[in-house]
Please model this.
Amino acid sequence: MAQYVARRLLVAVPALLGATLLAFLILRVIPGDVAEMILRGEQGEGAALPYSLEQLREELGLNRPLVVQYTSWLWDMARGDMGKSLLTGRSVGAELLHRFPITAQLALMAAILGVGLGVPLGIFTAVRQDSWGDYVGRLGAIFLLGLPGFWLGLLVLLVGVRYFDWIPPVGYYALWDDPKSNLLQLIFPALILGSHQMALIARMTRSSMLEVLREDFIRTARAKGLREQLVVVRHALRNALIPVSTLVFLNLGALFVGTVVMEEVFTIPGMGSLLLNSLRSRDYTMVQAIIFLAAMAFILINLASDLVYGWIDPRISYRERLGSP
Amino acid sequence: MMEREAAPTTSRGVSLRGVPRQIGTVQRRLFRFARRKPLGAAGLAVVLFWVFLAVAAPLATPGHDPYDQDYTVALQAPGADSWLGTDRFGRDLYTRVVYGSRISLVIAFTAVGIGGTLGLLAGIASGYIGRWVDGLLMRLVDILLAFPGLLLALALIAVLGAGVDRIIIALTVISAPWMMRVIRAQTLSTKQNLYIEAARAMGASSGRIMVRHILPNVLPPYLIIATSLLGFFILMEATLSFLGLGVPPPDPSWGRMLSGSAQERAQTAPWLVVFPGIAITTLVMGFNLLGDALRDLWDPRLRSGPTG
Model:
């Protein structure tokens, strides 16, 4: 196990370095003088900043050699100093801290909905394989997976406003300050993101259940006269959930990205809308920080899911999973 | 699996007698595919429908141009003259949706074509040659696959800027590692076969073995992954354009059509929100259904797969 963890960490290190390089390069590979482009813009539509060219170059450290820039930037990031927003001059770290809870809440709500609905649906369609319920459930899942999330959001807004006189609250409401506004704001985006997760999880649960239900120990359990319910829940489900749990874990990353789109549609002031607005207004220090943090988070989630996988299923041969000789 | 699909060349169908063998085989295969995988066949039909519309766009939209603005007919509801209504510039929505399929399909096919081919070649080389080639390429793949597609695309567009060519580049970067990982795994398992050893014993070069023996075996997974990627990229382009980071105006992109003014005017002109979304959904679903069916047929490990 220790050896396995060490190997996984070794694989994660180059990925982490690659991610920091990618984030670092966002500011540096843009052709021409970045400072000039930030101030003037490609077609003269640049962000009107309280900086002069020289000041901005100084601020971004652009007048030093690349290697020096990279290492000092990395050192700053490691200490949590992510610089100042080019647009507002405020600390990037503080802004992110302010935005993070709402995005995390949205992703968490969606994950809970996805697991809570997806697993039962997967069990149902597997146990009743080839019944009408199975077909309807599977078709529904395919349908949900093909629906663009942002379009579903637009339709919810369209129908909500038109027929129910409902407008999602705009602004920021902490769950503990104003639970009603907070939930009203987040429930539909969470449902949309969650329905997508549900479809993925239901499909995975179904195929995994079907596989397990064919195993010998299931036949044994039935032969010894165990109630079908117990066979399904205690014997089949416990084994079937192993691959599902990795999917759920890995999807946390995808969920966070999904919130980008939902925050845009429902004007939720989270990290996603911050990223988009920063991209649009050339707030490169902000973009850089968000991409850097997201990349770190994904790599760590990947690592954690690999470790959790090994922990829930001790049969897994670590060497085999790495796919190397 | 491939052997079974390729083997039945004996013509048994009476009605097909006299038809050139090649055509008869293709027809029969399609027919059998439709019978075994009705949903997959429906997906194929939807995809072909959109490809046909994209190719024949000028013929399918008589009397309208996707860029022609006419403020006298702005924001008209669907009717006899404009089947799906008009937008705020008076442009015919039906025409723009039809032309939008061109942009969607061109971007998706180009990205999958370039990225998929790169992934195919790299995957075979990595799997067959192994050693440092494999080590190097797999580290790169690990890095790229560590990020969800949309985040990678956003990061790349942050560096490159928006535009059709930049989206294609971003999507290519996303597709290559996916393809490569699958093809590499397939190459590794194909390499174990006795006939590879036999070929090598007969003096075949590595290049010849890779082209003649490995390549045919990795084509089924290639097609499966390519099909799913096409659906994924249609959705991705729509999402990026919707976020204002994809296809720039005035080109008719489905995602772009749903952003900005369509959102603001959704209450008075709901058709602006409804129809481009239906277009995206049907095309994405078509590719997904087709991809699922191909996976069920060709990938024995996922035989009892999730959809089918």
Notes: The mean pLDDT of chain B is 81. Residues 39-69+82-302 of chain B form a domain with the MetI-like fold fold (CATH 1.10.3720.10). Chain B touches chain A through 46 residues (CB under 8 Å). Residues 63 and 95 of chain B are 9 Å apart (CA to CA).
